[in-house]
Amino acid sequence: MSDSSSLDEPKATVSHQDDVRAEKANYNKEALFKPKMSDSSSADMEDNTYGENEANTSGDGNVLGQYSVKQVMQMGRHFAQKHNLPNDDDIFARAAALARDPNKFDHMDFLSEHERIACYDEINKPWSSMTNKLIQIIAASAMSAAVQGMDETVINGALLGYPKAVGLDGGTERENWIQGLVNGAPYLCCAGFSCWTTDWMNNKLGRKNVIFFTCLISAISCFLQGFGPTGAPGWHYLLAMRLLLGVGLGPKSATTNVYLAECASKQIRGSVTMMWQLNTALGIMFGYVFSLAFFHVPSHGIGGGLNWRLTLASAMIPAIFVMIQIPFCPESPRWLMGKDRYMEAYEATVQIRPHKILACRDMFYQHILMMEEESLQLPFVKRLQEMVTVRRNRNGLLASCVCAFMQQFCGINVIAYYSSTIFKESGFSDLQSLEASFGFGLINFVFAFPAFLMIDRFGRRYLLLRTFPWLALFLLIAGFGFWIPKSNNDARMGVITMGIYVFTAIYSFSCGPVPFIIAAESANLASRSLNASIFTVVLWGFNFILSLTWNSMLAAMKAQGAFGFYAFWNLAGWFMVYFLLPETKQFTLEELDEVFDIPLRTRIAYEFKELWPNFQRSILWRKNVKGQPPLGPHQRLSLKSEEWNDKASAEFVEKAN
Question: Looking at the keywords, is Flavoprotein present (predicted)?
Fold first, then answer.
């Protein structure tokens, strides 16, 4: 109920979040949110043609939408005063009003012409309006992803030399397992140790310092793993250095995307986050380039050969570039505000936004969101428990883990880590194997670009469902190519190479980038960091399993059986995605809460009933096939169907009441 002398208070929702807020310190302890003013007191504030009761168009997700323009302007002034921030021309008050409804900048007379142009350019020309510092951050983060990709694939070229140097070339079962352990050691360290240190390291060091520190570890370990002893002590030494490499890989893989997301504007955040996968593919390609570059390097008296040693050590090069770049980048403003270093956060935000009004707007709104986030915090054990006990969290985590599992068990990293030996087994020479591996890396990089156009146009679930059968088919073609007699070597090599290349091209715009996007979208505010940590652990854990088992699987099942095994998992992945993963395209985060809160049993039953209608629409190309109404009320209301509209609207209104 509202009072005639005061504005309505924001509606409270009875939920677990309210209980959490009650356990925490008072939400208004900073006195940032002043009591809502009466109509008479609001007259004391300056007059603006953008009215106090003007409707908010920024969407239900804007937490400032429940306050009037004059109220948020007062909040902005108080924010600047409390943290000793420069508030020339009352900029934080105006920025706060802009944060309340950023889409109506052209109706705000208190904004100058230059400020309105900056708002327009941010929305309509986001790439051309980027500052040099933001470009520098994106470049450093891209190079950091390339470090990741190169660290993963230089071992591929080294496989042609190091097993003989350290006594693992006998082909025995024991040696196959040891070789798999050495190759997969970084991923074992990531899943078992280093990923779990990410939160602690970020809290203590900050985003850019974590990236610098992990690149330093990567550079040192890459250099050392290339120049160890030979014989039995050699593989022990190499194993230790590759475990050390995992200390650098895990936290960097989680931190770089967070750093990018916290610095980029929302207009380009999705695209720059996808650059992680793109530039990882670039690093994978460069790993093969260096393998080729050092192939003809003679030993020069160094035991076991110099070429594979230089190949392993070459992964330190992009890490050194990142270490040179990252100190000159500003720290994440969000991290600085979390450490109560608001003046430094202000200076950093001004550097990465094209206009001061945008910097003040983002800084103020980020502070509001941080207050909301802090009100949702629970002890780690409690949050971990609620990832399983709360249905919305459980379903979101399941979707993330399914994607992480299938990104590995689709078979791509078996090819990434062992392509040189796979191509050699098919009949290529050592040099030809490396050249074919470079082709794999080039295709993986080039075909990642279409994902930028397809992810939001077609949808995440759509891409996975349309590509998993093709991934299975071309893995089978590659595997069955090994049955072609070696006497017909050209046909044998052609079929195997074609199967691997087409498989890689399809993977690069589907199962490559989609899991990272699903992981970012499937969690709510309170569980986002924990969901990301578990996703990363699952990703690296199964990555290690692939690397560990491939040699033994190849010896026991031959190439045909090994490729067939992963082809089966692509078909199984289709069913997992179909029944367990909802579409997340074009939903707001608030709507996704509702999507993931649908009971899993209900979703599976719904999708099972839709199997035949979907088959008719997708395979038989039949039109006007009747199906069930979409599951979520938001989907029902957005679709036009006389059969659904009345029922959907009634259900939605009843639920809202």
Answer: no
